[in-house]
Design goal:
This protein is α/β, with parallel strands linked by helices. The protein is built from twelve helices and eleven strands. The protein folds into two domains: about 100 residues, no CATH class; about 130 residues, Glutaredoxin, CATH 3.40.30.10. Strand 3 and strand 4 form a beta hairpin. Helix 1 packs antiparallel against helix 2 and helix 5 runs antiparallel to helix 6.
Length: about 290
């Protein structure tokens, strides 16, 4: 194969009176391109024949069925392998961009891969239920794309005190890995996470370079009363609605951020359990 590739290159270069050095460079580049193209094709093709874990027709019978499946099975906050409608591998950014076009949904494929593999499928039917699925799928992708673009950016400046009087600002973030949770008292999903959040704090309580900070919407007096019955082991900062919505530009509760020792956002998650593996890896690199 290599001989058949080199022969025409040598002939064409000879006719153009290229130097020996130029010839060697062209041969090396051609071989490298051939190998790279072969590798990409093999990588793409390994996913072509994978079957979806649920058929598109079955999944989209009604909105609720699609929503339940997507909520529990399509976890865009985690690392995954994304494929377009032709099973071509996409990076995360482009996968989310395509999914946000309001005509595609993601379905998990059956595979032995350690990472989840999601493929995009086109929704052609335009009945009311299908339109709702399309719009909601697009919003999910747009939200996750926003989280993706937050990565690597500094956490917006804040200078606040928690309900115990401890200051939290840019200086208190530096040198530590900070797990941030946004929530409010009447958010059922936020409160349901408390036991899991407290276990996470306990897991890292002996590591002085890991800290947990929660930004709540409610006033201090209401938070103190509420937390007597529903303890949260994070530091709790009251009245942070403006900061969350205008500085962080977040609209979903709860949302979780991991901020690096340099004060920059490393990752954003909507579900606490999705950040646990990422946090574990980040702590090993401290």
């Amino acid at each position: 194969m290599l001989t058949s590739l080199i022969a025409p290159i040598v002939l064409s270069v000879f006719l153009l009176s290229c130097s020996a050095q130029c010839l060697a460079r062209q041969i090396a580049n051609a071989v490298a391109e051939k190998v790279e193209a072969s590798s990409v094709n093999e990588y793409d093709n390994k996913y072509v024949n994978l079957e979806p874990e649920i058929e598109l027709k079955e999944l989209t019978k009604d909105f609720q069925q699609w929503w339940n499946y997507t909520y529990y099975n399509i976890r865009l906050g985690k690392e995954f392998i994304g494929l377009d409608v032709n099973s071509t591998v996409l990076d995360k950014e482009n996968f989310l961009k395509k999914m946000s076009e309001a005509k595609l949904i993601a379905i998990k494929l059956k595979t032995a891969e350690p990472s989840d593999v999601y493929r995009l499928y086109v929704l052609d039917n335009m009945d009311n239920s299908m339109q709702s699925i399309r719009r909601t799928s697009a919003r999910i992708a747009q939200t996750e794309l926003g989280y993706f673009y937050m990565q690597g950016k500094p956490l917006p400046n804040m200078d606040v005190f928690d309900i115990n009087g401890k200051a939290h600002n840019q200086n208190s973030l530096l040198g530590k890995l900070t797990v941030v949770k946004t929530w409010f008292i009447k958010c059922t999903a936020c409160i349901e996470e408390f036991p899991q959040a407290n276990k996470l704090v306990e897991l890292y309580q002996d590591n002085p370079r890991v800290q947990f900070l929660s930004l709540a919407l409610d006033p201090q007096a209401e938070l103190i009363k509420f937390l007597e019955a529903q303890p949260l082991k994070y530091a709790v900062v009251p009245k942070m609605q403006s900061y969350i919505q205008n500085e962080l530009k977040l609209g979903a509760y709860p949302t979780h951020l991991i901020v690096g020792t340099d004060g920059k956002i490393m990752k954003v998650f909507e579900r606490l359990h999705e950040l646990e593996t990422f946090l574990e890896t980040a702590v090993t690199k401290l």
